Amino acid sequence: MIISLFRVIYYIRYTVVISGILLFLIALLISKLRFKLSKLIAAAVIIAIFSVQTVYYYDLMYNETSNTIEDTFDPLVTKDDDFLIDDASVYVMTVMYPDNTVCYYNKNDWRIENTYCAFGRDAYVVNSFSEMKPLSSRVWTMGRGECYEYLLQNGYIEVSAHNIHLEFHNYNWEIILLEKPE
């Protein structure tokens, strides 16, 4: 817990685990101390450190930029759109669209096929573009990397690009819609 004075080690998604560890540490520490006042001071210090980090990250995660993705894409994404993503940080955005087909291009072969398929009913992982299922005529991708180039080579044209900034982890994404003329 002392490390958290110098480096942020708390993430909101770890609350359940860290709360249990924190309560265990407090109980252990209090049981080892001889004086009641020192027990209270030690418990207060641990709780204060944990509280400061929790407030900091809560503010960071739930500030005005936290709804940027929904605000930007909810009016634009249709139920027939597909996602072709090669970045894990953006891939989790597709959780908001569980009825859309999501293909994660696993260019680094991370062995995450089963894990990433949990993001939606029609989510799947490929290690090469040859494994992909046919895509719809509208596909969202991130940046102008391999997925973007693959779509251009297969007759898609860029329709729009949206720059997204989230303060959490200082994410900056360019998410692009491409369409295939019929």
Write up this protein.
This protein has 182 residues and is of the alpha/beta class. It is built from six helices and six strands, in the order αααβαβαββαββ. Strand 2, helix 5 and strand 3 form a beta-alpha-beta unit. Strands 3-2-1-4-6-5 form a six-stranded mixed β-sheet.
Short description:
By secondary structure, this protein is an alpha/beta fold. It contains six helices and six strands. The protein has helices at 15-32, 36-61, 68-73, 88-91, 113-116, 146-153, and strands at residues 82-85, 101-105, 123-126, 138-142, 157-166, 171-179.
Keywords:
single chain, 182 residues, alpha/beta, six-stranded mixed sheet, 6 strands
